[in-house]
Each structure stands twice: as C-alpha cells, then as structure tokens.
Amino acid sequence: MSTESEYIRIEDGVLEITLSTAARGTSLDFTGVTAGTAALAAAGKDVGAVLLTGSGPNFCAGGDVRGFAAVEDRSAHLYQLADTLHVFVRALEAAPIPVVAAVHGWAAGAGMSLVCAADIAVGGPGTRLRPAYPGVGLSPDGGMSWTLPRLVGFAKAREIMLTDTALDAAEAHRLGILARLTDSDDAVQDAARDLARTLARGPRASYTSIRTLLSSSATATLSEQLDAERDAMGKAAGSPTGREGVDAFLAKRAPDYSGLS
C-alpha cells in the first residue's frame, strides 16, 4: 500500500519527505517541513525508515533569501522559520527509525544542516555542500553548529563554517558528511531510496537502540555508555527481534523481521 502527496509519500516501509521543489527554486519549502513533522508524528509500524529528498535539481539550496527580504520584520520572520525547522529536526532525532538523505546537486544553508542531521547521506559526483550563512550575514540554524563538529571535528567545522567553504562530493565523503557516493548523479535518488527500503525491512528495534546509544554517547562517560549498552543488549536479547535474529543465525536462514518491533 502507498500514499502520496506533493511532499509526503509512504511506500515499501519508507516515509519520503520532499524538502524542496523546483517551483520554489529548490529553497527550503516550509510546507514540506511542516508536512514532514506531522508525518513523523503520525508514522505507525508500517514505516521503518525516513528518506529526505528534493524534487528539483538540488537537494535544498537553503533558505528563501528573497522571501526574507520581502517581509517587514525580518527578525521575527527568521525566528519563526528557524523555530519551525527545529521542530522538524527534533522530530528526526526522536524518530526510532533510520534517516537517509538523497543529496543530489546543492545542499546549502539549512539544506546542509539537514544532510548533517541524517543518519546516512548519499551523494553523487555533482553533489555540493556549503554552509552559506556568512554569505548573507546570518548565523546557522537546523543544528549545523551541533552536528557538523561531531561529523568532521571542531577545528574543521570552524574552518568550514567561518570561511563558508564549498565542499565537493569527494571532500564531503572524505570528511564523513556523505556516507556513500554513487557513480552518477542520476543514481543518487534510486540508491538512497533502495537503501531506505533495505533499512525498513531490517531489525527496527536494533536500529532504535543503535540511534539511542549513539545519541547518548555525545555526553556520556565511557562507564555510563557501557551500562547503557549492557541494558540495551539485555533488553534486545529477550525481544521478538532479538530472538528472531539469533534463531535465524542458528538455523542458517535469513531473518524475517517483518511485523517485529
């Protein structure tokens, strides 16, 4: 079963959220952001992965700067947009399932922030990333000042953000911002969608534990993290997912995680 709208599509266990469209010049489309937040909140057991994408020539070229300039109170306007975006980023972080980004063309400003917010970002030869905030005299949003240092290290993040460095696909992959590169730009969307579908068929309870443990590791001591891993392992061993995984391994068959949590 599949359901579709301009911004939200659910198919093969994947919740696909379109964040930019050609009609809006591939700037961040807040109709898509708001729809994505609602879809994440409403997602049921039929959803096992999230795919972030854009429907135009770019993943997301950043904020609508012309729109910023057209409003009377720019401070209030940008505050509200950032707040709306951050509700979405928090929803992605809280989701118990993996988040994949299909990064074709440019990911600039908030677009780059959303790439950094994904668990796995897939790009192609023509993928480009840029903070873009200094270019318009603004400061980062979308969590970039938190996620980018954790991906590339604090010193490199400072350099990239302060100098507004444009990263090509090879450098973004070397730094770990892009986890995978395809051989052609035309293959990015399909490769990311195939990955999301594969994850959606996988052990969802395991993915939830992995994401939770990775998130807590940012502030936990090693001893605290070891305790958290022990507790998660014990819980997993008695869960339907854990039992199916172990039983399948012993039976030398592929595990079937469908319908398990």
Automatic annotation (TrEMBL):
What UniProt keywords apply to this chain's record, in alphabetical order?
A: Isomerase
Q: Which InterPro entries match?
A: ClpP/crotonase-like_dom_sf, Enoyl-CoA_hydra/iso, Enoyl-CoA_hydra_C
Single GO term (MF): isomerase activity
Protein origin, superkingdom:
Bacteria
Name the coiled-coil region(s).
none
In the record, the note on similarity to other proteins reads:
Belongs to the enoyl-CoA hydratase/isomerase family.
**Protein name as it appears in the record:** Enoyl-CoA hydratase/isomerase family protein
Q: Which organism is it from?
A: Nocardia speluncae
Q: Name the lineage.
A: Bacteria, Bacillati, Actinomycetota, Actinomycetes, Mycobacteriales
